């Protein structure tokens, strides 16, 4: 990778974004799980569920604070490192971010405070309402972020204005209900639910292995397994929907993920295994599943999925069309108030390909001076590096099916085997704790790296989006972020481990008539005087 301002800026944003996303999935999922636990408490009036709500709520709070801190930094980077991007698409991209900040963030942050400090100030139903508003606020916040990101993947509801030299929104409805944004939202949120379920399952399994807080652990496993199984199944279904939307909006990304070098006869096969060779344009030792990719990508047996070679040819055609648009834009800009009619007509016809002409800026200052070789090289630039996408996607999918298996097993044991969990299964649950984070980070890598060389797909190349900074300036801020985030990571892990080791403040025993057995003795504090409410 060439060490320049563009690559350093990409590296910095990737580092901060992927670090921030360590906190997002757990926040999304744990907020729902905590709300479910408190709902059971309000419905049954059993103190064990209040204890569970408070304990898992404490871990949610730690994670929430770190997530907010790292998320704010990301938004500052748009102005610091990506100023031309902010200028070019700010009218569109800024709208969902503003809604997220004004509505979802304030809703979420306000009710988080009430959740922690309102236990003795609000009624049970009032506090439960606050808890659900925290959960709704967390997920609502994710919605607007993913609408903004979805627009970068599929820029609908906007058009380029040659007078302002910016993208301008034409339909807020189209931006909000962009098929890519909606598919990304439900898929990302479901992945967050799986992350929280695996986390609760693993921590609870560790308590059972240590024979601590067993009442809380068993009930937490029951909730996490049922919630996690439903979420893991939905991730697969909604991931399929994401793949279907990519077929329409980002054909090159899909071809790269599948290492589909040439267009296959319909229906295309799915490459389950292989070693992509980008120079030779082939996949060595490929193991194909017939028809699978055609069914996933097109939902039919007759529609083709274009391969990389065909898409490169299409990109070359669009680059030539973009050069016409670029020339017409220059004519319009000479006198914007009295633009020649023929130039305006040409721009209206070819303007949708203007971004492809900007790909030539890597090779020539004026795209109109590009040679056939320059155009061919720019067309090749539309192909992302295939092998990381190929393997990241397959590892992510493999982990997704592993989550289904683990959750199904624990759901079965919790439902039909009286929660008698074998120790090897409990060890497996503990070992699995990092896995959903790995899957989530790989998913974001596929989504963002697969979009290259575009910041906004087909509209604005990444190479043109950066601020006018020196390599030294970007390298210094990158080093600063790495140092700061390393400290924050150590704080996060230290606090989480501390409160997990500490466990709940008191072990609340269940009534024998309810629990089906004599209450266990408290291992962390006496339970005298704490009787379940009538």
From TrEMBL:
> Where does the protein end up?
Cell inner membrane
Record key words, sorted: Cell inner membrane, Cell membrane, Electron transport, Heme, Iron, Membrane, Metal-binding, Transmembrane, Transmembrane helix, Transport
Could you list the residue ranges that cross the membrane?
Answer: 20-43, 55-74, 94-118, 130-152, 190-209, 221-239, 391-413, 425-447, 467-491
Q: Does the keyword Kinase apply?
A: no
Superkingdom in the source lineage: Bacteria
- According to its record, how does it sit in the membrane? Multi-pass membrane protein
What Pfam family is a match, any one?
A: Cyt_bd_oxida_I
Main location per the UniProt record: membrane
Q: Where is the composition biased (Low complexity)?
A: 515-528
Q: Residue ranges of region Disordered?
A: 515-534
Family statement = Belongs to the cytochrome ubiquinol oxidase subunit 1 family.
Name of this protein: Cytochrome bd-I ubiquinol oxidase subunit 1 apoprotein
> What is the taxonomic lineage of the source species?
Bacteria, Pseudomonadati, Pseudomonadota, Alphaproteobacteria, Hyphomicrobiales
């Amino acid at each position: 990778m060439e060490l320049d301002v563009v690559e350093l800026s990409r590296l910095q944003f990737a580092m901060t974004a992927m670090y921030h996303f360590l906190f997002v999935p757990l926040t999304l999922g744990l907020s729902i799980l905590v709300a479910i636990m408190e709902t059971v408490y309000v419905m049954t009036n059993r103190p064990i569920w209040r204890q569970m709500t408070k304990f898992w709520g404490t871990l949610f709070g730690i994670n929430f604070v770190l997530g907010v801190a790292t998320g704010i930094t990301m938004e500052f980077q748009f102005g610091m490192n990506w100023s031309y991007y902010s200028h070019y698409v700010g009218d569109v991209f800024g709208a969902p971010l503003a809604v997220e900040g004004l509505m979802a963030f304030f809703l979420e942050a306000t009710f988080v405070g009430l959740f922690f400090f309102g236990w003795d100030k609000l009624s049970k139903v009032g506090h439960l309402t606050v808890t659900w508003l925290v959960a709704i606020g967390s997920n609502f916040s994710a919605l607007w972020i993913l609408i903004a990101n979805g627009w970068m993947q599929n820029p609908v509801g906007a058009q380029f204005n040659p007078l302002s030299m910016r993208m301008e929104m034409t339909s807020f409805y189209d931006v909000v209900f962009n098929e890519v944004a909606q598919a990304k939202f439900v898929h990302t949120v479901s992945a967050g639910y799986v992350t929280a379920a695996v986390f609760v399952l693993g921590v609870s399994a560790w308590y059972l292995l240590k024979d601590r807080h067993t009442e809380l652990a068993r009930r937490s496993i029951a909730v996490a397994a049922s919630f996690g199984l439903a979420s893991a199944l939905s991730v697969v279904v909604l991931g399929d929907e994401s793949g279907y939307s990519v077929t329409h909006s980002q054909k090159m990304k899909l071809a790269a993920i599948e290492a589909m070098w040439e267009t296959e006869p319909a229906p295309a096969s799915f490459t389950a295994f292989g070693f992509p060779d980008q120079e030779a344009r082939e996949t060595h030792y490929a193991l194909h599943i017939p028809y699978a990719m055609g069914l996933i990508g097109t939902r039919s047996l007759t529609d083709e999925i274009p391969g990389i070679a065909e898409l490169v040819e299409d990109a070359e055609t669009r680059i030539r069309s973009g050069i016409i648009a670029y020339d017409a834009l220059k004519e319009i800009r000479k006198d914007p108030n009295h633009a020649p009619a023929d130039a305006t007509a040409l721009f209206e016809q070819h303007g949708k390909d203007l971004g492809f002409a900007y790909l030539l800026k890597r090779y020539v200052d004026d795209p109109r001076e590009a040679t056939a070789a320059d155009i061919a090289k720019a067309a090749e630039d539309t192909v992302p590096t295939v092998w990381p996408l190929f393997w990241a996607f397959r590892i992510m999918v493999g982990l997704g099916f592993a989550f289904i298996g683990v959750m199904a097993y624990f759901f079965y044991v919790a439902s039909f085997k009286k929660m008698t969990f074998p120790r090897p299964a409990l060890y497996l649950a503990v070992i699995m704790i990092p896995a959903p984070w790995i899957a989530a980070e790989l998913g974001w890598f596929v989504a963002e790296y697969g979009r290259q060389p575009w910041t906004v797909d087909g509209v604005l190349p990444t190479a043109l989006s950066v601020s006018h900074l020196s390599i030294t300036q970007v390298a210094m801020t990158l080093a600063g972020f790495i140092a700061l985030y390393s400290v924050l990571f150590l704080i996060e892990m230290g606090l989480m481990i501390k409160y997990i080791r500490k466990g709940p403040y008191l072990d609340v025993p269940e009534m024998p008539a309810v629990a089906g057995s004599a209450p266990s003795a408290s291992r962390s504090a006496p339970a005298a005087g704490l009787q379940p409410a009538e």
